[in-house]
Specification:
101 residues; Glutaredoxin; 3 helices; 8% strand
Length: 101
């Protein structure tokens, strides 16, 4: 990710710890990703209390809005495409999209 620093200069960064995502922003991400579950982090510590429950899409939406740790990070929205998480494959796809890979 460090080699992306200058490529990301023109992007808006939202500190979700200080400013919760709105439902409109979450819905936009769902529209691009296909589901709320696609960007829901099951690694969040608070997920352990929920893992035995059967969650619906509406539950994922509400949890992401209420608690920032449930959002899989980072999320990049570039030219109508969404890149979720920091897996090597995802970062490579972002680099290629930005012309850096």
């Amino acid at each position: 990710m460090k080699d992306l620093d200058t490529a990301l200069d023109g992007f808006e960064k939202i500190d979700i710890k200080l400013q919760s995502l709105t439902y409109d922003e979450i819905d936009q991400m769902r529209d691009l990703a296909g589901s709320y579950q696609a960007f829901f982090s099951k690694r969040a510590v608070k997920y352990k209390a929920l893992k035995d429950q059967t969650l619906q899409e509406s539950d994922y939406r509400k949890l992401i809005q209420e608690e920032y740790t449930f959002l899989k990070r980072p999320v990049f929205i570039v030219d109508g495409q969404i890149f979720i998480g920091n897996s090597p494959a995802n970062i490579l796809a972002l680099k290629v999209h930005l012309g850096r890979g």
